[in-house]
Write a structure and sequence with these properties.
By secondary structure, the protein is α/β, with parallel strands linked by helices. The protein contains 14 helices and 9 strands. It has one domain: Alpha-Beta Barrel (TIM Barrel), CATH 3.20.20. Strands 6-5-4-3-2-1-7-8-9 form a 9-stranded mixed sheet, with helices on both faces. The structure holds iron/sulfur cluster (2 copies). Residues 260, 264, 266, 281-282, 284-285, 289, 317, 322-324, 326, 329 line the site of one iron/sulfur cluster.
């Protein structure tokens, strides 16, 4: 069973991002009744069971557009008992996002899981609005962040609030301003991902990924913020930041060579379930790395995960046919690579000693 389970609960999105094509999905993919129902999620989570999924990642589209999101997460928290539930959001509708997060906190109150919420910020003011395709978007995300931080104050230790930036060719000069703004808010994390072409996002032909030289320059403020996090955080926070810091040279290597920077454990440590019940090893190559159609298997994850199609996908990935720096997957890839893990631990030690 996977340690890290991502469920994309919808393809619907109220944003119009220039780095992701989910919002212009074919209408047939957005018709009512195409997405997995709460009952199907319940059966999916029950078939995985407790004790394996550490990290439950809720994805979309914009996940908060689902009216039953809190119920889906309650089901996942009860049946999987993850330590961490993660919810990215575009933050475009402050009232809806904050209400939904409040509902989620209420339904998982008796569980041990920590909830982290991560609105996206790709630039300051009009830059963010231009990249995300909606005028006034930045102001709305800032309101979402402020209200989430108020909520965090009422749920100490249960709610973490961060922000995430997609570094693309559209915002190469923005990272410094985004990091400075985020630092004024006392967020739990400030992270970035490189803009990638992903089949799930329908952006395979979009020229959004920076070159290695562009990325090396643009990423510096995020690297500096990660070093500060390593200095100031508890041991777990420092290790997570160190893994993120190790991802930067690995991403550069991928940009220079197009080869996978490390052995990838997608389909072993990580699984991704699409909105209509397709089981993927990852969403970057959702077609080639498709392991099963869970709806055709009565949502029996266990059977799909141990089936011949899943084994074939794992063999394909192990042979190195694909390669990418998908951040959600790279945590496990680094943790399972002894040299990289030693490098991350050494970073923590050196930075904390001021070396
Ligand atoms: S990146 Fe997120 S917010 Fe933007 S279109 Fe894609 S799913 Fe929507
Ligand atoms: S290297 Fe990237 S594309 Fe290939 S399986 Fe891993 S996450 Fe997916």
């Amino acid at each position: 069973m996977p340690l890290n389970l991502t469920v994309s609960v919808t393809r619907a999105c109220n944003s119009r991002c220039r780095t992701c094509g989910i919002w212009c999905s074919e209408p047939s993919l957005l018709e009512p009744g195409t997405e997995l129902t709460l009952d199907e999620y319940e059966r999916l989570f029950a078939s995985i069971g407790r004790g394996s999924v550490y990290f439950l990642n809720i994805s979309g589209g914009e996940p908060t557009l689902r009216d039953d999101l809190a119920a889906i997460i309650e089901s996942g928290a009860r049946l999987l008992e993850p330590a961490h539930v993660h919810l990215p959001t575009n933050g475009l509708d402050p009232g809806r996002v904050v209400d939904t997060v409040g509902q989620i906190l209420a339904v998982i109150e008796d569980r041990d899981a920590v909830l982290s919420v991560k609105p996206s910020i790709d630039g300051i003011g009009p830059v963010h609005d231009r990249i995300r395709g909606i005028e006034g978007n930045y102001d709305r995300v800032m309101e979402t962040l402020e209200r989430l931080l108020e909520l965090r104050g009422r749920h100490p230790g249960r709610l973490e609030v961060g922000c995430g930036t997609v570094l693309s060719r559209l915002n190469l000069d923005e990272a410094g301003d985004v990091v400075r703004m985020a630092e004024t808010l006392d967020l739990d994390s400030i992270i970035h991902e490189i803009a990638e072409n992903r089949e799930e996002m329908g952006n395979e032909s979009w020229a959004i990924t920076p070159s290695a030289a562009e990325y090396a320059r643009a990423v510096r403020p995020f690297a500096a913020a990660l070093r500060q996090t390593i200095e100031r955080s508890d041991a777990m926070g420092a290790l997570k930041a160190a893994l993120r810091l190790r991802m930067i040279p690995l991403t550069m290597r991928w940009l220079r060579t197009s080869a996978g920077p490390l052995r990838c454990y997608a389909g072993s440590t990580n699984a991704h379930v699409g909105p209509r019940g397709r089981l993927w090893a990852c969403a970057v190559q959702a077609r080639a790395n498709r392991m099963a159609d869970l709806r055709q298997m009565d949502m029996d994850f266990r059977e799909a995960w141990s089936g011949t199609a899943a084994s074939r996908v794992r063999r394909r990935i192990r042979s190195g046919e694909c390669g990418c720096p998908l951040a959600n997957q790279m945590y496990a890839n680094i943790l399972l690579d002894p040299l990289e893990l030693a490098g991350a631990l050494s970073l923590v030690s050196r930075i904390r000693k001021g070396a």
